[in-house]
Structures are given as structure tokens and as C-alpha cells.
Amino acid sequence: MAKISERIERVKDTISSACARVGRDPGEVQLVVVTKSATIEAVKEVIRLGFTNLGENRVQQLITVSTQVAEYLQGPDGDLGLPEKVGWHMIGHLQRNKVRHVLPISFLIHSVDTLRLAEEINTSAAKLNLCPKVLLQVNTSNEPLKYGVPVGAATHLAEQIETLPNLRLVGLMT
């Protein structure tokens, strides 16, 4: 298996090629390294390589890994030029009853697909004095087993989310 640094370089090359095809600056693209099922040692290596945007798709894993990463960044290796903190992205399906656990950790929630979920995020964020960024998850493939609002309902849901004062809709996740 290729080393993490080699795999990340391949991803960066793919991003650069895609940007060149459409006339975009690769610097405009934010790479989020997903920690799903990675060991804590692999996550530490990613951080040592300079990546500070990390994504997790399960709430319990987000809690566990983010705690381990915070301890690592504050530990004796903190003198090695590591960042003070990393930015966590919640990329998986989020249930309303788990919102309060995610908000203190994740600065961007990629999977808002119902008004009820957005309202729960809004209510919980107000209690925590937070205003998290969210992405509206749109099911562009119309696959019934996938999460996301149908394409035809996305604009209406986005308009409703925009009225909620304690979260910020910043884009789409498809």
C-alpha cells in the first residue's frame, strides 16, 4: 500500500488537473482529509504533513478521533511545529439527537438534508452561542437509498434554512 504522503500527492495532482481543465486556481480548492477508519497514527501523520481540514462521517468516531487529535496537539509533540488545532468537518448523515455532540467539534456540517435537522442545529447552536456553517445535501442521483433532499426541493429548503439565525448555509454537498 502506498504511503499516506504519496496518496495525498496523487489526490493533489488530480485536483490540479481538474482545476486546469476548468480554468480554476487549485489554491481555491480546500482538501478535506477523511479520517474514516484510519488509525490515530495515520491521522497524526496527515497532520504532520500539514493538513488541518479533517472529515469524519460518524459522530462517535468524530468525538473519539477529535479528542485524540486535540491531546496530540497539546502534548509533547506540540513543539514540532504542529498546528494549534484542526478544523473538523462532519461529512456523514447526522441525526437530530446527535447534533449537540457535533456542534462543539465540527465547524462545517456537510449533510443537512431536512428542515427539521436544520432547525435542531439552529436551536442547539443558539444554546452554545455558535453559528456553524452547513452544506445542503442534495441527492442529485435520485437514488432512494442515498440521503439528501431531491433536486426539485433544494431551492425551497435552502430558502427556509437561510431564515435560521444560528447557522450559515455556505453551499451544497452532492
Automatic annotation (TrEMBL):
Q: Which SUPFAM superfamilies match?
A: PLP-binding barrel (SSF51419)
Q: Per its UniProt record, what NCBIfam families does this chain match?
A: YggS family pyridoxal phosphate-dependent enzyme
Q: Where's the Alanine racemase N-terminal domain?
A: 92-174
GO MF annotation list: pyridoxal phosphate binding
Print the keywords alphabetically: Pyridoxal phosphate
Mind telling me which InterPro entries this protein's record contains? Ala_racemase_N, PLP-binding_barrel, PyrdxlP_homeostasis
Query: What is the protein name stated in its UniProt record?
Result: Alanine racemase N-terminal domain-containing protein
Does the keyword Protease belong to this entry? no
Question: Entry's PANTHER family?
Answer: PROLINE SYNTHETASE CO-TRANSCRIBED BACTERIAL HOMOLOG PROTEIN, PYRIDOXAL PHOSPHATE HOMEOSTASIS PROTEIN
Pfam families xrefs? Ala_racemase_N
